[in-house]
Amino acid sequence: MKIGIVVGSIREERKGIKVGEWLLAQTRTRDDAEYVLIDLKSFDVPLLTSPTHPAQAKKQYESANVRRWSEAIDACDGFVFVTAEYNHGVPGAFKNAVDSVAPEWTNKPVSFVGYGSVDGSRAIEQWRQILANFSMFDIRAQVGLNGFTDFETDGTVKPNDRKSESAQTMLDQLVAEVRLRAS
Ligand SMILES: Cc1cc2nc3c(=O)[nH]c(=O)nc-3n(C[C@H](O)[C@H](O)[C@H](O)COP(=O)(O)O)c2cc1C
Hints:
With 183 residues, the chain is α/β, with parallel strands linked by helices. It has a single domain, classed as Rossmann fold. The protein has helices spanning 16-26, 64-74, 92-99, 121-131, 161-182; strands at residues 2-7, 34-39, 78-83, 109-116, 137-138, 143-146. β3 (78-83), α3 and β4 form a beta-alpha-beta unit.
């Protein structure tokens, strides 16, 4: 079983990559799946301008960067979306990358780690609505890191033990859902 931890913010000096690395560190005690970090920034996914709907593209995307992104997503059985919240919603670059492929997401379980002034909760709620269109199975348990209390001033992630516990609960539910879908 392969779980992709998808870091969706691409800004210079973003907090997102540190959140993704923190989550990856939380998986080190687990032997139930292979956990991989998928950093959207490293794919440089272009704005979606193709006339072909991604669901109809048969994974033959015009852009080589989108094909690489497609392969990384396709290889996973489930996901954790590591999401910031921009203007009370999902980050635009992340949404664009999600829109740019389609069958790679379909019918797969997904869970969320959000961060921000209200733990990224508004962005997570929007993702739940959006990903329903791919018939994804969203996991109830989620992790919320607070922008004021769970980070040091240099952006280092320093949550309390409860956040680590909720990460394990979320991953337990995610892995169980992937197993259920595979059976
Ligand atoms: C364009 C923009 C909009 C933002 N809007 C929100 C917001 O609505 N809610 C919130 O909690 N934080 C908001 N923030 C602050 C982010 O939580 C904070 O900058 C965080 O570090 C963003 O994640 P990133 O560094 O991984 O990009 C916003 C930041 C940016 C750049």
